[in-house]
TrEMBL record, chain A:
Pfam families, A to Z: BPD_transp_1
Cellular localisation: Cell membrane
Main location: membrane
Region annotation Disordered: where it falls in the sequence: 1-33
Origin superkingdom: Bacteria
Cited InterPro entries: MetI-like (IPR000515), MetI-like_sf (IPR035906)
Protein name as it appears in the record: Sugar ABC transporter permease
Gene Ontology cellular component annotations, sorted alphabetically: plasma membrane
Record-stated family: Belongs to the binding-protein-dependent transport system permease family.
Domain ABC transmembrane type-1: 102-295
Keywords noted in UniProt: Cell membrane, Membrane, Transmembrane, Transmembrane helix, Transport
TrEMBL record, chain B:
Natural source organism: Kitasatospora albolonga
Keyword terms of this UniProt record: Cell membrane, Membrane, Transmembrane, Transmembrane helix, Transport
Residue runs in coiled coils: none
UniProt key word Cell division: no
Main location: membrane
Compartments, as annotated in UniProt: Cell membrane
Residue intervals of the ABC transmembrane type-1 domain: 60-272
Pfam families in the record: BPD_transp_1 (PF00528)
Protein name: Sugar ABC transporter permease
Length: 309, 282
């Protein structure tokens, strides 16, 4: 164990679940004053919840309207129900261009996140378990990498890619997203916390090679960390708009967000695109929200691992 | 290990070096624009040009103003919300956490797009409510546009940071809080004099990430600017770089600006960390 960081919470020992009454209610003596402040506190929380959920609610309602109702009806009242016909129109527009964008997004986010996580975990593991010269110096370079804003590197990357003839290819977006210095940092922390050196020794004694030891023994132990890093990487890629905007001209290679942006550029000439942008946003957001709700626990432990230093 | 460093070098180290190289040259059209362009060694000319460019400096001014408005509001808001959810009076804690965190699941550009429509009169419930109240607020006005941008960022990030602070608060030992209560400290006092100091490191880290994020701001202003004509296409530094490269085709200037932006980001991180450490030690 290094003393550098707190060990992350492993799911076997999760952070205390909020909402399960970890702290008892105040003693009865303070009840009367407690009531007003309780109403106040929960009132404030509720108002903020309205603020955070309102845009998404609006999106949901707006997605059921056709173009005429969008501008004619009250924003929070339902017009005629056009959700299905909007969906139809969305996937039919320009020979199913939107479906392509979804697949592209999947490639740029999911595939890239899996690969980048593998690379990060392997690298962090190596930093933790192997001794070699200049190790800490190299790790310092990684930490500097964490601090270099990704957008700053984007333009030089574009210039390099155009030199290499990679602009307007899948590679132009994929390759940069494979690097995740923060992931390496996290992986090292996880590796320190989860993989005891003795286990590796035992594996080696049993005749496993280095690579086999990593894939068969260490990687399963690192699974929770893997998911956490994966989520970080996934979010970063999903939010990557600046890079895609620079690298891609061919609309068949666009990820969803860039595609919607381009449609939005044209709504002033073609107002019939409005409903498409709205339904398109909804379709892009729903799977993410579902994924978030399902993977909450990993999020929580990941955030805590990154935050409590 | 090896693959990471190969990639890391390819996509971080090399571009920085290449940017440094590019920034020293200027493309000059020879003759009448026939025969393409040739590269001319410009020394630090591009840096001088960027630093002398009013739009570039103004973009930093815009971001500075944005930070002044956004950071206290967002970090303060996240902290207060975390304290409220952590307080003994809060109900439905899980629901509130999920509700606050959801905006973070929305990709930045799409969040900006949703808000852009929510700012648009005729589409938006907000402008409608304001109209019936007789308030006159133009989200795309010269002075109001920056608030529109700040709001988009706050909507996306407040909940996320609230979760981080909340996680920090969960780590505050129960005994300490009980001792405070026994000593007659009220809920407010406990919150601000005991809980907040205990999560100082987390707050500092959040400030650092927020600053580094703020300086890269692109999606939200890019979209708001479509309607807010007064903002201009070079409102934030990243927008300036994009415009210089893709509208002006001045790659040397764009590369020099990128390096200057990296420098400012580095300085900012350094200053925030220093101040943060001092505050942590106090």
């Amino acid at each position: 164990m290094s003393t550098q960081t707190a060990t992350p919470d492993a799911p076997p020992a999760p952070t205390p679940r909020p909402g399960t009454g970890r702290r008892p209610s105040p003693p009865p003596a303070r009840r009367t004053r407690g009531l007003t402040s309780r109403v106040m506190v929960n009132g404030v929380l509720a108002v903020v919840a309205v603020y955070t959920l309102m845009p998404l609610t609006w999106l949901l309602i707006a997605a059921t309207k056709n173009y005429r109702d969008l501008f004619a009806t009250n924003p929070f009242s339902l017009g005629d129900f056009h959700l299905l016909s909007n969906l139809d129109a969305l996937f039919a527009y320009n020979d199913g261009l939107y479906g392509r964008w979804l697949l592209n997004s999947l490639l740029y986010t999911l595939v890239a996140a899996v690969l980048s996580t593998l690379v990060s975990v392997a690298c962090g593991y190596a930093f933790d378990k192997y001794a070699f010269r200049g190790k800490e110096k190299l790790f310092g370079v990684v930490l500097v990498g964490v601090l270099i804003p990704s957008t700053v590197v984007q333009l030089p990357l574009y210039l390099m890619a155009s030199r290499l003839g990679l602009v307007d290819t899948y590679w132009a977006v994929l390759i940069p997203s494979l690097v995740n210095p923060f992931g390496v940092y996290l992986a090292r922390v996880f590796s320190e916390g989860y993989v005891p050196g003795e286990v590796l020794e035992a594996a080696r004694v049993d005749g496993a090679g280095e690579l086999q030891t990593f894939t068969k023994v260490a990687l399963p132990m690192l699974a929770p960390g893997f998911v956490t890093i994966f989520l970080f990487s996934f979010t970063a890629n999903w939010n990557n708009f600046y890079g895609a905007l620079m690298m891609l001209n061919d609309e068949r290679l666009y990820p969803v967000n860039l595609g919607l942006f381009m449609w939005n550029q044209n709504v002033y000439q073609q107002p019939e695109l409005y409903p498409l942008v709205i339904i398109g946003s909804l379709v892009a957001v729903v799977p993410l929200i579902v994924a978030f709700l399902c993977l909450q626990r990993f999020w929580r432990s990941g955030l805590t691992a990154g935050a409590v230093k | 290990m090896v693959p990471f460093f190969a990639l890391f070098t390819a996509v971080t180290v090399l571009p920085m070096l290449y940017a440094a190289w590019m920034s020293l040259f200027r493309e000059e059209s020879s003759g009448l624009g026939f025969g393409g362009t040739e590269r001319v060694f410009a020394g630090f000319g591009n840096f001088a040009e960027a630093l002398g460019d009013e739009a570039f400096l103004r973009s930093f001014g815009n971001i500075a103003l944005y930070c002044v408005l956004y950071i206290p509001a967002m970090v303060g808001g996240a902290l207060i919300l975390a304290l409220l959810v952590d307080s003994t009076m809060a109900r439905a804690r899980r629901f509130f956490q999920i509700a606050y965190f959801l905006p973070h699941a929305v990709p930045g550009l799409i969040a900006s797009l949703i808000w852009l429509y929510l700012y648009t009169p005729g589409l938006s419930p907000i402008t409608e409510v304001l109209d019936t109240l007789g308030a006159n607020w133009n989200f795309f006005g010269q002075d109001e546009a920056i608030y529109s941008v700040v709001n988009i960022s706050a909507w996306q990030w407040t909940g996320y940071n609230m979760i981080i602070f909340y996680a920090g608060l969960q780590a505050v030992p129960r005994e300490v809080l009980e001792a405070a209560t026994v000593d007659g400290s009220g809920a407010l006092r406990t919150a601000f004099q005991i809980k907040v100091p205990m999560i100082r490191p987390t707050v500092v880290l959040t400030l650092l990430f927020t600053c580094v994020g703020a300086i890269q701001l692109f999606d939200a202003p890019k979209l708001v600017q479509l309607r807010a004509n007064t903002m201009g296409e070079d409102w934030s530094p990243t927008m300036f770089i994009y415009t210089a490269a893709f509208k002006g085709h001045d790659y040397g200037l764009a590369a020099a600006s990128s390096l200057l932006l990296a420098l400012v980001a580095g300085l900012l991180s350094f200053v925030v960390t220093k101040l943060g450490n001092r505050w942590k030690a106090s």
